[in-house]
Design goal:
Strand content: 5-15%
Low-confidence stretches: 4-57, 321-349, 425-441
CATH superfamily of the largest domain: P-loop containing nucleotide triphosphate hydrolases
Number of domains: 3
Order of helices and strands: HHHEHEHEEHEHEEEHHEHEHHEHHHHHHH
Number of strands: 11
CATH class of the largest domain: Alpha Beta
CATH architecture of the largest domain: 3-Layer(aba) Sandwich
Mean pLDDT: 76
Radius of gyration: 29 Å
Distance between the termini: 103 Å
Largest sheet: 5 strands, parallel
Length: 441
């Protein structure tokens, strides 16, 4: 009976310990000056990476990419992955540095050990420090429990520090000891702990210029950049876009299948894929991923992504200025009305939900204020587009158009003349690209 009681107590302690451990990992610290990263995300990323390494069930990111750049990058990844040294990955934002780091881990001798990630961008200094090194109970206001840092959790494995250039000088100095001597000290303690961690760091910033400006420690750079590789912007290997589109379509389908508990598959038309291959993607691979995710949100099971849908989505992204210039200062390719014919080819099914019976759907051209265009010129162009849309809707007779717009025939002609003067073009022409002259009856 005593054995039974001891067993029960042991079970209770085990459950309490498990509950405390779970609470430590998933509870946000109530301290007013301290915040805690949701470590479930980090653990999920690690679990996903380890699953890829062991089972190979999930398609690898670089599968089917055949460009010379990708083959060169894979050779570089294979070169550095076999060496037990710290690695620095450089390249523009969104160029796949995280994917490169995960591939390095998959090919390394530490592939069966933890792979943890921390994005250092825009994180407060104290938060980066507490996440990297951990803290003890009572180390600061709100530290009501012991917190294990990423260095300890990644012991024996690899720690990926993304956007290392955003780390403060104070944290950089502490990273020196952790990297050089493999020793870390938690906040609130005076005891050092040995941690065997390999570092992969990545940055989209020019660390050499930051060193000259005193914003980044040269000795830390030397410890991180033992081996270096670089990623290139997507515009330098556009031939990989079809493979990337397929990868993200499968990824989106997998996430939908998991959330809806049934198999989901997405497809894309050849002309739609061709249009995606012609875009410049200032946001690089991340911008392509987000675009594919948005495209899949418009279609249902059994439907394909069409050229018209791609035109509509690209124009919408461009109109709200979601894409910005890249760090290299390269000019972006504008996807405008004349470029993709969005005025004439926007599928009615996309706009019909917001249009009531009898409404006239205006072309998206009126949503674009062109570079160098004045408000007066835009107003005149919006009038032209609206009148043209009304003309197509009513059959083309001026009296019917005027009636639909709540104008008299004379007032409508007056609007046409004023728009013609503002645009300095014949208002009866369908567009400035040379469409045939339309006659009013």
């Amino acid at each position: 009976m005593e054995d039974g009681l001891l067993s029960d107590k042991s079970c209770m302690k085990s459950r309490e310990s498990s509950h405390a451990q779970e609470s430590r990992e998933h509870t946000v610290s109530p301290g007013p000056r301290r915040r805690k990263i949701d470590r479930r995300t980090l653990q999920s990323q690690t679990q996903t990476a380890n699953t890829e390494n062991i089972s190979f069930k999930k398609p690898a990111f670089f599968t089917d990419q055949t460009s010379r750049y990708t083959q060169t990058l894979l050779a570089e990844i294979n070169r550095v992955a076999r060496r037990p040294f710290n690695i620095l990955i450089t390249g523009e934002t969104g160029t796949g540095k995280t994917h490169a780091a995960r591939e390095i881990h998959r090919l390394s001798a530490r592939s069966n050990k933890p792979f943890l990630e921390l994005n250092c961008a825009n994180l407060p200094e104290h938060l980066v420090e507490s996440e990297l090194f951990g803290y003890s109970k009572g180390a600061f206001t709100g530290a009501d429990h012991h917190h294990t840092g990423l260095f300890e959790e990644a012991d024996g494995g690899i720690l990926f520090l993304d956007e290392i250039g955003d780390v403060s000088l104070a944290v950089q100095s502490k990273l020196l000891r952790a990297i050089d001597e493999k020793q870390i000290k938690q906040l609130g303690t005076n005891r050092y702990r040995y941690c065997d961690v390999e570092i992969i760091a990545a940055t989209s910033r020019n660390l050499a210029k930051m060193i000259d400006a005193g914003q980044f420690r040269e000795d830390l750079y030397c410890r991180l950049a033992v081996l270096t590789i670089g990623t290139e912007p997507l515009r330098s290997h556009l031939e990989d876009i079809p493979a990337l589109v397929g990868f993200y379509l499968r990824e989106a389908a997998g996430m939908m299948s998991a959330s809806e508990l049934h198999s989901t598959a997405y497809s894309i038309d050849e002309r739609a894929l061709k249009l995606l291959c012609e875009y410049d993607y200032p946001g690089n691979i991340r911008a392509l991923r987000n675009l594919i995710y948005e495209l899949t949100s418009y279609i249902n099971e059994g439907e394909a992504i069409t050229e018209e849908l791609v035109q509509f989505t690209l124009a919408k992204l461009n109109n709200r200025n979601e894409f910005t210039a890249t760090n290299s200062g390269s000019s972006r390719r504008e996807i405008g009305v004349d470029d993709v014919g969005i005025v004439r080819t926007v599928p009615e099914s996309l706009l019909a939900p917001i249009a009531a019976p009898g409404d006239i759907i205006l072309p998206l051209e009126v949503c674009v204020l062109r570079e160098g265009e004045t408000f007066k010129q835009w107003t005149a162009r919006a009038k032209r587009c609206s009148i043209e849309a009304a003309r197509r809707s009513t059959g083309g007779r001026m009296e019917d158009v005027a009636r639909r717009l709540g104008l008299t025939r004379g007032s409508l002609k007056s609007h046409l003349r004023r728009a013609k003067r503002a645009l300095n073009e014949d208002i009866c022409e369908g567009n400035s690209s040379g469409a045939s002259r339309r006659k009013w009856t």
